[in-house]
Description:
By secondary structure, the protein is α/β, with parallel strands linked by helices. Helix content is 31%, strand content 14%. The protein is built from three helices and five strands. The strands form two sheets. A three-stranded parallel sheet has the order 1-2-5, covered by helices on one side. Strands 3-4 form a two-stranded antiparallel sheet. The N and C termini lie far apart (41 Å).
Amino acid sequence: MLIVSIHDVAPPFLDQVRALRDRLRAWGVDAATLLAVPDHHGRAPLEGCLRTAAWLRARADHGDEIALHGVVHRQDAPAARRRDRLRAALLTAGEGEMLGDGAAAPPGWRGRGPASRS
Length: 118
């Protein structure tokens, strides 16, 4: 079984994402996971873009999975470890991915906050 995901599904990239999803369908990929960013860089909220929201709903109706991919998809604070800062600078251009602290991806986010300190 082949598992395919498309990252950074957000209003600014909808045309590119749609083209990629169409190409995948032509290659026989019936279902994909669409990693949606609810408010890309704090400037592109999904709730304000009916076109993107409608496309995501249609894709879900056709069998694609929609998954949360961060909230703003931006690294707001430096990574704690040197190797993670280097990786973020070289590979993600401040996009907030691949950080070593697990803050942006499950199950790491469950360990944040006062309740996790018991």
